[in-house]
Amino acid sequence: MVKNLKKLIEQVAKEKNLPEWIVEGALKNAIALAVKKDRKLKEHLQVELLEEGIKVYIVKRNNSETVRFPLEISTEDVNRIAAYAAKEEFLKELEKAEEERGYLEFVEQEGEITVGIVRRVLENGDVLVDLGRVMGVLPKREQIPKESYRQGERIKALVLEVRKHRGRYEIILSRTHPKFLRKLLEAEVPEIKSGEIEIKAITREPGERAKVLVHAKDMKMDPVGVIVGLRGSRINPVSKELSGEKIDVIRWTENVEELIKKSLSPAPVTKVRLIPKDKRAEVAVPKEKLSLAIGKHGVNVKLANRITGWYIDVLSEEDFEKLSALR
C-alpha cells in the first residue's frame, strides 16, 4: 500500500511540477481527514508513511509539550481508509497545497511591484486582484482615494505583506505606500537602481502630492534633473500611474535652511528663520504665493514638515518682518 502511495506522490509531483514533500503533505492531510471522518474523531491527527505501513497518531498538547499517541487501528482499516482518501480527499488537499505554495512564493516578492487583474470590488470597498495562481487584496485603506476600479482592469500595486488570516494566506497589496512610489521611480530611472542616485526619504498624500528627497553620489550629477527627465519624460509616467499625483523631487543638502526652502517647492521661499530648540522654522513667501506654499488642505506644508523633520510656519513676507520686529 505504502509503495503505491509513494509512486502516486512521485507521479503527481511530476505532473503538477510540485516538490514531492508538498504532495506527500497533501496526501497525509487527506488520510488524516478520512480517518477522522471514519472514526468520528475531533482530535488533531498526524500520519506517517513508513516502510512497514501507514501509522496514525493522535496529537495532544500538554502545557507547552506536544505528545503523540498511536491510534489503535488495524492495517486493513487504515489501508482501506487511505485508498479512499487517495481518491476522494487527495485532490482537495492538493489544491489547497498548490494554493498555499502560490501564496508562499509571494513572500519573496514583498516590497516589490506586481501586476494583476481586478476581479471584484467588495461591498466594503476592498478589491480582489487576480495575480495568476492566487488572489490578492487591495484594501480600501491602501487605495488612492480618487481612484475607482473596474472588473477586468489591469492594475499595478506593491506587495505589502503576505500573512496568514483565519487559517488562509492573504496577499495584501498597496498603491499608497511610499515604497510603491520608490519602486516606480526605480523602474523609470536606472540611476536609482544602480545606486548612483540615492532616495533618502519619500512622503506622500496619495493621489495629491509627494515629495522625494534625493542625493547623487557624484556631486557633478544633478539628481533632480536626471529623475525628472527631459521635459518630464521620466517623472510623468510615474505621476500618471498615481492618478496625477504631483511629485516634487528635492535635492538633499546638509544645510537645513536650504533644505526647508526646497521642501516647499513649487513655492518660492525668500527667508528662513530657524528655532532649533523647538525644531521649528518660520519661512517667508511672497503674499501671492502663500496659498501655493501651504497647498490645498495644507498638503504642501504638511509634506514639507515630514520630509525635513522640522515644523514649518509659513508666513507672508510682511508678517515675517512684523514678527521679526516684535522680537
UniProtKB/TrEMBL annotation:
Keyword Flavoprotein: no
Entry's localization field: Cytoplasm
GO function term, MF aspect, one: RNA binding
GO biological process: DNA-templated transcription termination; transcription antitermination
SUPFAM superfamilies (alphabetical): Nucleic acid-binding proteins (SSF50249), Prokaryotic type KH domain (KH-domain type II) (SSF54814), Transcription factor NusA, N-terminal domain (SSF69705)
Keyword annotations from UniProtKB, A to Z: Cytoplasm, Elongation factor, Protein biosynthesis, RNA-binding, Transcription, Transcription antitermination, Transcription regulation, Transcription termination
Transmembrane regions: none
Limits of the S1 motif domain: 111-176
Gene Ontology terms: cellular component: cytosol
Pfam family, one: KH_NusA_2nd
Function according to Swiss-Prot or TrEMBL: Participates in both transcription termination and antitermination.
NCBIfam families with a match to the protein in the record: NusA (TIGR01953)
Family label: Belongs to the NusA family.
Assembly and interaction partners: Monomer. Binds directly to the core enzyme of the DNA-dependent RNA polymerase and to nascent RNA.
Protein name per its UniProtKB record: Transcription termination/antitermination protein NusA
Native species: Hydrogenobacter thermophilus (strain DSM 6534 / IAM 12695 / TK-6)
Highest classification ranks of the organism: Bacteria, Pseudomonadati, Aquificota, Aquificia, Aquificales
Gene that this sequence comes from: nusA
